[in-house]
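Quick entry between incubations.
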Amino acid sequence: MNLFACAQQNRYKETHEISQLKVVFLDNQSLQEIWESKTGKPSTQFQPWLRGDLAAVKTVRGFYDFSTETLYCPKWNYEVCGHELHHAALGHFHPNN
Ligand SMILES: [Zn+2]
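Done. Structure below.
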């Protein structure tokens, strides 16, 4: 209930019209190859942390190409490219609706 009250205080409505968006779903390896060919940068980078001796490997999981207005995403990965975006691209895909 606290969450609900908080959400009520922060109501918003933000409309974005996207007229030319192209969505490309593809496997991670293909996505990383396209990223590398478009940017000339490696899709996986070793990232040393600023302090401490921890490090991380960061891999490109999805990206938007502004020049072609194209979104590259792994299919069914809602964390990267949103459940509702899948509906926008694919229509109804739940078995019972
Ligand atoms: Zn759904």
